[in-house]
Amino acid sequence: MGLFATGVATSVLLIAAHDRPFTGQISISPEPLRQIMPEAPAARN
After folding, report:
1. Rounded distance, CA 21 to CA 31, Å?
2. Do 9 and 17 touch, CB atoms closer than 8 A?
3. Is residue 9 within 8 Å of residue 3, measured between CB atoms?
4. What is the mean pLDDT of each run of 10 residues along the chain (45 residues)?
5. CA-to-CA distance for 43 and 27, rounded, in angstroms?
6. Phi-psi map region of 24: left, alpha, beta (phi>0 left; psi -120 to 50 alpha)
7. pTM for this structure?
């Protein structure tokens, strides 16, 4: 049970640490994503 709780706590902390990958002290540039993602299609009604 302790091992499971440790794994869950570690997972939650990692997700929280990388919640905003483009801001903060450890950040990445969004430029590679902009290069590979197509333009968003127009909204359909």
Report:
1. 12
2. no
3. no
4. 96 85 75 77 55
5. 31
6. left
7. 0.47
Q: How many Cα atoms within 13 Å fall on the side-chain side of residue 2? A: 0
- Position 20 scores a pLDDT of 77
pLDDT value at residue 8: 96
What is the reported pLDDT for 22?
Answer: 74
> 21: how many CB neighbours lie within 10 A of its CB?
13
Contacts (Cβ under 8 Å, ≥6 apart) of 29: 22
